[in-house]
TrEMBL record:
InterPro entries: Acyl_CoA_acyltransferase, GNAT_dom. Keywords: Coiled coil. GO terms for molecular function: acyltransferase activity, transferring groups other than amino-acyl groups. Residues 182-209 form a coiled coil. Pfam families: Acetyltransf_1. Residues 45-110 form the N-acetyltransferase domain. This is N-acetyltransferase domain-containing protein. The lineage of its organism: Bacteria, Pseudomonadati, Bacteroidota, Chitinophagia, Chitinophagales. It comes from Chitinophaga jiangningensis.
């Protein structure tokens, strides 16, 4: 990686020669993690490149660095940013974050009204998604498109998903809803306007106070919200403990234990 500049861009048909390398690394990475959702062929990856529905990262010397693609489900009501993979030689340098940001922007451009979602077991991906505006949701808020869920069959945890009637699994579901984000933006704008009016009124009040006795009493309050990745981490550990132990004890048919999940 030394002395190489990384370029993150929309993939084109000229990039199809990377397809076999990409799918081989997807398979290798899935085996290393013990998961593997929606295994794809080089031909499928090439199709995404030809459609302009993929993002690729390469060096200025032509070395492959990373990849991700877009899939639309439920008559384009839902969009998934799938197949995120980074060349092991370039991991730990913010490449995944750059690719996720680019593919998110491409998804919003091509499907401005669609909900964007993802399933992941990775804390790093969860953190990136949170920064982009995704929020953890239940599986029931995702697409009900059967073709999407068929892609989970290649995952080693598919029996957990089926045992839970497709309501839960080791993956955490995250969703970006453009309609909700628009409402939040409008509410924020209204709140800012109200705050500005209140500040102006307070300024007038202080001016009167200064005129009366030469003293100013002023107090500021700031409120910030930050995505709590530690909460995601604790939730993921608890989820894995419960579901994997349930699996060992016989799954849905073999255990009488019941668990309630709150998030």
């Amino acid at each position: 990686m030394e002395n190489q500049h990384i370029i993150v861009r929309v993939a084109t048909p000229d990039d199809i020669h990377y397809s076999k390398t990409i799918t081989d690394e997807m398979e290798s990475s899935a085996k290393a993690r013990g998961t593997g959702i929606a295994k794809r062929s080089p031909a499928y990856v090439e199709l995404k490149m030809q459609e302009g529905k993929a993002v690729i990262a390469v060096t200025d010397k032509g070395d492959w660095v990373g990849f991700c693609y877009i899939e639309a489900w439920g008559h384009d009501k839902f969009v998934a940013n799938s197949g995120l993979i980074v060349n092991p030689a370039f991991r730990g340098h913010g490449v995944a974050k750059s690719i996720k940001k680019k593919i998110f922007e491409l998804s919003r451009q091509k499907y401005p009204d669609s909900k964007i979602f993802g399933l992941t077991t990775g804390l790093a991906v969860m953190k990136i998604n949170s920064e982009l505006g995704y929020e953890p949701v239940t599986y029931s808020e995702l697409t009900d498109d059967e073709e999407f869920w068929k892609g989970c069959r290649s995952c080693v945890n598919f029996d957990i998903l089926t045992a839970k009637n497709r309501k839960n699994c080791l993956c955490t579901a995250m969703l970006y809803d453009p309609t909700e984000k628009l409402k939040e933006a409008e509410e924020k704008a209204m709140a800012a306007k109200a705050e500005a009016a209140a500040a102006e009124a307070e300024m007038e009040k202080m001016k009167m106070s200064v005129a009366a006795n030469g003293r100013i009493h002023h107090e500021r309050r700031r409120r910030r919200f930050k995505g709590n990745i530690k909460l995601y981490e604790r939730w993921l550990r608890f989820k894995r403990f419960v579901l994997l132990n349930s699996k060992k004890e016989g799954g849905a048919a073999g255990t009488k234990k019941k668990f309630l999940f709150f998030f």
